[in-house]
UniProtKB/TrEMBL annotation:
Residues 127-137 have a biased composition (Basic residues). Residues 112-137 are annotated as: Disordered. It comes from Roseiarcus fermentans. It comes from the Bacteria. This is Uncharacterized protein DUF2442.
Amino acid sequence: MAVSEEDARQAEERMAALRANGFAVSARYDRRTARIVVNLNTGVQIAFPTRLAEGLAGASADNLADIEVSPAGLGLHWPKLDADVYVPALLQGVLGSRRWMAAGLGAAGGKTRSQAKAAAARENGRKGGRPRKAGGG
């Protein structure tokens, strides 16, 4: 598939628009806090715990320390982990795919303790509890 000059121009405009909100100029792993620290062209510095990013959770410090910033500054890449973080998404608080983030939110929500959740569990218990699964076979 050939790329026309118009296609290239439009792609460059989209990249410029993304970069206008800030782009990475450097990134490092802070072993002391177990966080990735990203410096943006705007002077802003962002840090996030590795456990919150898809592909980085549970990785060794040596693997986390090897970070590449894309030439446009819109991506971070960990070659030893084959993991990537998209900087515009990072600025919006997105640290993984929708599916991966939904799984994390679901697990966190299941662990939440509240008066309402406890009351619902008690009410369910009064009704005989959770229905048993139908036996297969």
